[in-house]
Amino acid sequence: VQLQASGGGLVQPGGSLRLSCAHSGINFNSYHTDWYRQAPGKQRELVAVITSAGHTNYADSVKGRFTISRDNAKNTAYLQMNSLKPEDTAVYYCSARSFNNAYWGQGTQVTVSS
Known about the structure:
Blueprint: E1 2-6, E2 9-11, E3 17-24, E4 32-38, E5 45-50, E6 56-58, E7 66-71, E8 76-81, E9 90-97, E10 102-104, E11 108-112
Parallel strand pairs: 2-11
Antiparallel strand pairs: 1-3, 3-8, 4-5, 4-9, 5-6, 7-8, 9-10, 9-11
């Protein structure tokens, strides 16, 4: 099983990034995908969830700015991040979750700074 997160980088405040999480080795259609983030010195925070059926949920801190989606044909989940703020700076991780399994990607760094 492999989850490959990508798309992070350095962006100015107000900018946008799209993160991708490519899944392999699992039946992607049967898994929910979660995006977490962890800033230095802080606990890991759940940012967004998309279920296998396509239902979504977001942390209050990102509602209206972030959009989670999935492409079952590509076995890939996405996190579109708009209107980025310095407080969004963190390592972002994706996770594939079923009722009895959970797998993690390696993380991708997002830095929001002028």
